Structure formats: C-alpha cells, structure tokens
Amino acid sequence: DGIFTYARFRFVAPELRENASLDYEALADDFLVLCEQYALPKLSDQPEPIDRVIISFSDRAIEFGLSDPDAIQFFEQFTLKSGACIWEQF
Questions:
Q1: Measuring CA to CA, which residue among 3, 26, 12 is closest to residue 59?
Q2: What is the rounded CA–CA span in Å between residue 30 and residue 21?
C-alpha cells in the first residue's frame, strides 16, 4: 500500500572530516554491518513492525530535519525482510 514504517540510526563520525580516504566506498560495508548487528537487535522488541532502516554517517551532529551544507554525510536504506537487511538503492 506504499506506507512504510522507518527506523533511523544516525552515527556521528568526526573522522570523515579528518580522513579524506573515508569516502562512501570505504564505508559501504559498514552500513550493512550496522543494520544487521546494531539496528536489527535494537528493533527486535518493537511492538510495531518496522519496514525500513536508514543508517547515516555524518562528520558532526546535525539536528534532525535541518541541513548543514558543510557537513559530510552518507546515507543508506534497507528493507527488513525475514530478519535480514536488504539494501535499497536510492
């Protein structure tokens, strides 16, 4: 029906600014690991089912919903199905 429930997990990683080699490619595998090993266990006791997980990395804390053009940020989305995180390409 097109209506999904989301859980967002936001991680602050100052080293994104300090280390230029930490680009998306360097972090790509970390998104799946965080979804499977961090988000799924956190969501296991939720009374409402969660359909999608969004994992983000930012070099600084940013209030949700606000933008910071100077921030370095990376995002990935996963669909949860049968206890697994399935990557959803934006």
A1: 12
A2: 15
